[in-house]
Amino acid sequence: MSRYIINGGKPLQGEVSIRGAKNASYKQIIATLLSSQPSHLHNVPQISDVKITQSIAKSLGSVIEHTGKHSLKIHTPNINNSVVPHGTGEKSRTSFIFSSPLLCRTGTATFPIPGGDKLGARPLDRLFDCYQKMNITTREVDDLIIFNTDGIKGAHYTFPKPSHTVTETVLMTAVLASGETILDNAALEPEIDDLIDMLNKMGAKIIREPNNPKRIIVQGVKELSGTKHDIICDRNEIITFACAALATKGNISILKIKPQVVETFLKTIETMGAKVTRGEDEISVAWIKPLKSIDIETEPEPGFMTDWQAIFSILLTQAVGSSTIIERVYPSRFQHIANLQKMGAKVQFFNPKIEDPQNYYHFNPENDNPSYFHGVKIYGPTKLNPANFTINDLRAGACVTLAAITAKGKSIVDGVEYIERGYESLAERLCSLGADIKYIKT
User: Fold this and answer.
1) Are 255 and 281 in contact (CB under 8 A)?
2) Sign of the torsion angle spanned by Cα atoms 92, 393, 121, 25
């Protein structure tokens, strides 16, 4: 088990460059399998989720060549196997996304029930419903899900609730379907648009309706070619480094980004009193005065992203007054709060009084539990105390890392393998900004 030994309490200063998006890169690796021709991907982060995806792709027939530190050439002339292997398939939620190229090229796909972070259930019912309309059958056998088709057909499907990853999976399946596919109430995340851009460069015919961007129309084509594509910047990395700077009362410049993809976050911290300077492909974030408390609710794009709230919680412990977070995307995503309490954070859980919870929350009601809280109040400013942790979740791991560099004194974070699922060289890059972190890798 690898660990960080952190001596916190130093303001962060300097510049940091952002890597390619975790939530785009592994899906775009999968998308290359839709073609028998080679593709070149650039700005690929060196993280374990990407490595797991590469491992699965290789088991299915892909030949992957590293053409640079952050560049890959992926060639899948033939699909040799339509079964996603257990070990790697269970470690990541990427496994069911492989159903797209497998169904398109072999007519069948088998994968283990997907894993990932411990955030509560990740329902696939929306995928199953859409696939049924596309002439794809679903069977569950023990811990496996098996898809079959004798020909993928275009369909009209309306998502009951927007779903980022299912939207992407269906898009990849629809590009080689027979006929037209129309997706309504589709998710709006920029990573989806980056995937659409890549697929269109491969020869797909996909558009978002300009006057109704929640509608995506796909005209099926007979085959796709290879392509060259630069992966979009990672929004979660931007937020992580910005929060690290503000929590430590620092001042940093964040480079190689598209500021517009985090505009919701930037407006939020400006409301709190942070100074934000936007450039064409960079931003500067500075603590200039005590931050004010704020109330937020997580939502799909263009709202406040659920992946941000654990990291953002650190800022709220340092803000003046009572702040509120309401989690609307996942039924259970406040595991990180116990770690902040261990460091002295003052919090109070609650469940908001909602007249129509089925429409208010974006998770399925059957995945809720009376023991789950969907809201938390965080009181500040609080002097955080150093502490020792063992983590089991990516965002919670990033949260305690930021809390530890904020707290004066020595903290130890064990299990940083979880952090490496989504961040490339996080400790090294924080140290380049002035943090004191010793990384012990085992």
Assistant:
1) yes
2) negative
pLDDT tens, 137-156?
Answer: 999 998 899 999 999 999 99
pLDDT at 88: 67
pLDDT at 119: 39
SS3 126: helix
Beta strands per DSSP E along 105-198:
108-112, 137-141, 144-148, 156-158, 180-184
Domain limits, the chain = 3-19+233-440, 22-230
Q: Which CATH architecture has domain 3-19+233-440?
A: Alpha-beta prism (3.65)
- Strands 321-326, 375-380: pairing is antiparallel
- Phi/psi region, residue 262 (left: phi>0; alpha: psi -120 to 50; beta: rest), is alpha
H/E element, 8: strand 3-8
Pick the closest to residue 25 from 424, 402, 426 (CA basis). Answer: 424
Query: For position 23, what pLDDT does the model report?
Result: 92
Mean pLDDT of 360-366: 88
Going by C-alpha positions, the residue among 385, 419, 414 that lies closest to residue 9 is 385
Distance CA(105)–CA(109), nearest Å, equals: 10
Residue 1, classified by CB atoms within 10 Å of its CB into exposed (0-12), middle (13-18) or buried (19+), is exposed
Cβ neighbour number for residue 225 with a 10 Å cutoff: 14
pLDDT range class, residue 120, cuts 50, 70, 90: very low
pLDDT in tens, 258-278: 999 999 999 999 999 999 999
Domains 3-19+233-440 and 22-230 share a fold: yes
CATH architecture of the domain with range 22-230: Alpha-beta prism (3.65)
Q: At what angle do helices 99-106 and 164-174 cross, to 10 degrees?
A: 20
Beta strand pairing status for 282-286 and 251-255?
Answer: antiparallel
Q: How far apart are CA 161 and CA 328, in angstroms?
A: 12
Please return the burial class of 353, using the count of CB atoms within 10 Å of its CB with bins 0-12, 13-18 and 19+.
exposed
Tell me the pLDDT tens digit for each residue of 189-236. Answer: 999 999 999 999 999 999 999 999 999 999 999 999 999 999 999 999
